Amino acid sequence: IKVTDTTPPVVTTSAKVILKDSAAPDALSFIESVTELTGAVTAVYENPIDTTTAGEKSGKIVVSDSSGNKTVVSITYIVSEFESVTIEANELPIIPEKIIKNYHYF
Predict the structure, then answer these.
(1) Sign of CA dihedral 32, 36, 37, 42
(2) DSSP states of 25-38 as a string?
């Protein structure tokens, strides 16, 4: 008897914050948990993600197990940018929302 696994992985993802103009993180880093898998799991972006403009964005990753079963899951990521600031000793404490653009996403 030959048993063939045809069940695709069930994947839970989590959102990520990425710095503007940085390289895209490994697609696996969006995965929070995987069930119904055989062996190792790989993940690739369905299309390249955009880090050139700030804001909340979405994309998709293709997750495969070692039996060749695949599932496509949606991901959410936030592209944020930091401003260069000079802080004087008498300006402490530092207030993050004053130096991080798109702070409301955190």
Answers:
(1) negative
(2) PPGGGGEEEEES--
Range 72-76 contact pairs with CB under 8 angstroms and sequence separation of 24 or more = 72/46, 73/11, 73/13, 74/13, 75/13, 75/15, 75/16, 75/30, 76/13, 76/15
**The pLDDT value given to residue 10:** 93
- Residue 94 tokens, joined: 């530092």
Which tokens go with 74?
Answer: 């949606």
Max avg pLDDT among 32-36, 74-78, 96-100:
74-78
- Both structure tokens of 19: 């710095």
Whether pTM > 0.70 for this model: the answer is yes
Q: Which of 9, 7, 5, 26 is nearest to 71 (CA)?
A: 9
